[in-house]
Design goal:
about 35 residues; about 0% strand; elongated
């Protein structure tokens, strides 16, 4: 449990992503969420 807690506290991204890629993913996610309302 303590190892898992430390691992979660590291805030290290699992895969590196450029700011542009992050923005595209977030935009797509938000559009999908809004479409379901």
């Amino acid at each position: 449990f303590s190892r898992a807690k430390k691992h979660l506290g590291d805030h290290r991204p699992r895969f590196p992503a450029s700011p542009e890629t992050q923005k595209q993913l977030l935009t797509g996610f938000l559009q999908a969420v809004n479409a379901r309302e």
